[in-house]
Amino acid sequence: MSGNTITQSVTPSANTAAALVSATVGSANPAVATAARQTLAQSRAARELGLKRGEFDLAVRLGCVRTVPDEGGGGRRVARAEIDRVMSEAGFPDGLKKRVEAVGTSEGAALMDVTAARFTRFARLGFVVPVKFYLNRYRAVVWLYLAEELRQFAEVEENAPLLNGRTPEGLRDQLDAGLDLRARNWRGRHVGFLLRQTKDPWARAAAVASLLDPAQVAEIVADPYERAYMNRFDPERTTHGAPDSPAAHVAARIMTAEDPDEISWLRSDLANTLQEARAHRRAPRPTPKPATPVVSRERSQLIEERRPSGDARQPTEAFRSADVRRPTGVRQQAEVRQTVDEPERPRRLLGWLRRRNP
């Protein structure tokens, strides 16, 4: 035989492995397999729509692409019919990309033809609302805005004095006092997205509670079982850095309401949503332990009838005789002393006097 040995690979191809996995899943649970074929993972849906993952997430938040819960218990998925609907819209894919385009301060100022400082004042005053944020390498907050909303703001004629003239005195006083509505406006937009994603009252209550401090939530949801059940529906939070890192603390501060009027509004909304959740479905509680069974009179009579004839005395008499029993040595000493002194001598004071004066 020659040294050139021909070998054949036995490793299945990717398509073959996928087919085997699909066949296995389908045979195990046909309903889940059918649902999986009718829906797509979000990463696959983003590729089919020609969007980056960040753009796709923003499209979902804005309601441009609707998602459905995963029947298998995973994350949310996109129905095949929804993909077909989005792709059949006029102007796809450029129109969809234009709606989800997000820009920072510099790009936003260029779109509105203003300076970056003026654009920042607009954002602090709440004229433009951020749609997302991230932390840069210096842990500074970078706010992003929808380019389409900025174009619409610049095209409105009533906003021309703000774009070209001096900022009104009342607005300048608010800026000098430290007014900054960017985080609050982002929270309002964020909770709106969370509420659109679900119709379950407990999930809606968890969405509102996610913007409050845990101490505030504990005051409204005083029942620990209700609080634990609501925490099951706590929305997934975007991570910014490692847990307990400075970046994570900055992100947590942005995601938590700070203004008194905002906290009051969220507390009221949480109380109302909690009432709806209680009426819709009660929170589960531990099963109480069964109480000790009480012996009925008929059972007591049956026990007495089955008692042996040699022990026919009543239980109270048996307990009484057992209580007055004494040790053998003590009983013998008492009998001897009674014989020596006098039989059946009187007790207490009269007996003592008789012994002193015989």
Q: State the total count of DSSP E strands.
A: 5
Strand content: under 5%
Q: What is the CA–CA distance across the termini?
A: 137 Å
Write down the overall geometry.
elongated
Kindly provide the radius of gyration, computed on alpha-carbon positions and rounded to a whole number of angstroms. Answer: 40 Å
Order of helices and strands: HHEHHEHHEHHEEHHHHHHHHHHHHH
Structurally, the number of domains stands at 4
Class from helix and strand fractions:
mainly alpha
- The count of helical stretches stands at 21
Q: Helical residue percent?
A: 55-70%
Low-pLDDT residue spans: 1-28, 315-326, 334-342
Describe the protein.
It is a single chain. With 358 residues, the protein is mostly helical. It has 4 domains: 69 residues, no CATH class; 77 residues; 84 residues, no CATH class; 33 residues, no CATH class. The protein has 21 helices and 5 strands. The strands form 2 sheets. It has a 3-stranded antiparallel β-sheet with strand order 3-5-4. A two-stranded antiparallel sheet has the order 1-2. A hairpin with a 5-residue loop joins strand 4 and strand 5. Helix 1 crosses helix 2, helix 7 packs across helix 8 and helix 13 packs antiparallel against helix 17. It is elongated, with a radius of gyration of 40 Å. The N and C termini lie far apart (137 Å). The N terminus is likely disordered.
